[in-house]
């Protein structure tokens, strides 16, 4: 697995994830398991071209803004399902369909398959979100380079209310208090996705049974302790259940902490599932 590291600070905030099959990655994770704040190196990404020959058809409904998500009893406009694209092999990346290539999209990230949410389509083409920096990176890929599937799930993290919500087929099925980034090390907002899940680096540290590694990257740290990146993860409370309580709290280095029973409700969420961080 990748040389991930876990951020910890005076408040024991944050987390890092790695789930590699290779011995080198496992050693790297074990060495850093005491630091908490999910950090993974990435291949980076190039922004899309500003102009395209014709407007693309959106593949999923855009997320509402924080003000629209927060009113009591008013769930966000979430589609019944989200189309996903699994990359067959390292594929040429296009700024727009038929335009020049602008790099490649890897078939795997930290030895896990690249399962990417589809955000627009054209005949023979799909536009996908990427897991690598910078946040918000996207690419056009020939449809022949991917296998399409779908997920009924969507996660919404509201930093203003310090809560995480899970939607299934557009219906709110679960909401829980969350520990989010502190004021000086906030959780970045935007549209992201679950890159992969992995077992905890230390089963006794309070991560819970698994960690959801996301495509969200810390803006406060770009190279935590030489790991090469700082990727946001969703995991257990790391012993801070009391601080999370019933209302949530700003206690981490950017990662999302949940009570263990809340984290377990996310066990069925597959890679590629969209995550909207608002507030």
What can you tell me about this protein's structure?
The model is unreliable at 1-75 (pLDDT under 50). Strands 13-12-11-20-15-16-17-19 form an 8-stranded mixed beta sheet. It has helices at 23-32, 66-69, 241-244, 260-263; strands spanning 57-58, 82-87, 91-94, 101-105, 108-109, 112-113, 115-122, 125-129, 138-142, 146-151, 153-158, 163-168, 171-177, 179-181, 190-198, 211-217, 231-235, 249-252, 256-257, 274-278. Helices cover 8% and strands 35% of the residues. The chain has 2 domains: 23-42 and 153-278, L,D-transpeptidase catalytic domain-like (Beta Barrel); 57-151, SH3 Domains (SH3 type barrels, Roll). It is mainly β and 279 residues long.
Notable characteristics:
mainly beta, SH3 type barrels, 2 domains, six-stranded antiparallel β-sheet, 4 helices, 8% helix
Element layout with pairings:
Blueprint: H1 23-32, E1 57-58, H2 66-69, E2 82-87, E3 91-94, E4 101-105, E5 108-109, E6 112-113, E7 115-122, E8 125-129, E9 138-142, E10 146-151, E11 153-158, E12 163-168, E13 171-177, E14 179-181, E15 190-198, E16 211-217, E17 231-235, H3 241-244, E18 249-252, E19 256-257, H4 260-263, E20 274-278
Parallel strand pairs: 11-20, 14-18, 17-19
Antiparallel strand pairs: 1-7, 2-7, 2-10, 3-4, 5-6, 7-8, 8-9, 11-12, 12-13, 15-16, 15-20, 16-17
The assigned structural class equals: mainly beta
Model regions low in confidence, pLDDT < 50 over at least 5 residues: 1-75
Strand count? 20
Which percent range describes the beta-strand content? Answer: 35-45%
